[in-house]
Design a protein that fits this description.
The chain crosses the membrane at residues 12-36, 66-89, 101-126, 138-160. With 164 residues, this protein is mostly helical. The protein has helices at 5-29, 59-92, 99-127, 137-162; strands spanning 34-38, 43-48, 132-134. Helix 3 (99-127) packs antiparallel against helix 4 (137-162). The two termini are 23 Å apart.
């Protein structure tokens, strides 16, 4: 059976969403997101992840964690929208009425692209005044953001140009 161009684009969209989700999930559940250290002695005291909520933490850290959690929920919604769109396109092609699923993927991507850099900036700027520094998992988020930009573009293109 021959693959149509729309099928290839939908597969590429699914691949970018999956890889971005893997990078994001590893980043959010890895405990090296925030490093608490003493800069004068160069001693690392502890590592913290995003999900480990603490009632005694500063408000900006709590806000950053909530933003990251909402981004993760948006990723899960994006995967659900992709699966719906994938099976509908696979069975019926890409008529005009399936645009909504690709636009929904674009909206979820945009939400992720707004909330995640906001959380990273919030925690990075406020944490730099104390003993907190950002760990290496921020680079996982940045890789995930680049792939999310790709999924935003691909899903918007499919919705606008392919589903007619």
């Amino acid at each position: 059976m021959e693959l149509e161009m729309i099928d290839v684009k939908v597969y590429i969209l699914g691949f970018t969403i999956l890889i971005a989700f893997i990078f994001y999930s590893v980043g959010i559940f890895t405990p090296t997101w925030i490093i608490v250290k003493n800069a004068e002695l160069s001693i690392v005291f502890e590592f913290r992840g995003v999900i480990s909520f603490n009632s005694a933490e500063p408000g900006w850290l709590s806000a950053g964690r909530w933003l990251m959690s909402f981004s993760f929920i948006s990723f899960i919604l994006m995967i659900i929208f992709y699966l719906i769109a994938f099976f509908q396109v696979k069975n019926n092609g890409c008529p005009h009425k399936y645009r909504i699923w690709f636009y929904s993927i674009s909206v979820c991507s945009a939400i992720i692209l707004i909330l995640t850099p906001t959380a990273i900036t919030l925690i990075g700027i406020n944490g730099s005044y104390g003993f907190l520094t950002l760990g290496f998992t921020v680079w996982l988020y940045m890789t995930s953001m680049m792939l999310t930009v790709a999924s935003l573009g691909i899903s918007g293109y499919i919705a606008y140009k392919e589903c007619r």
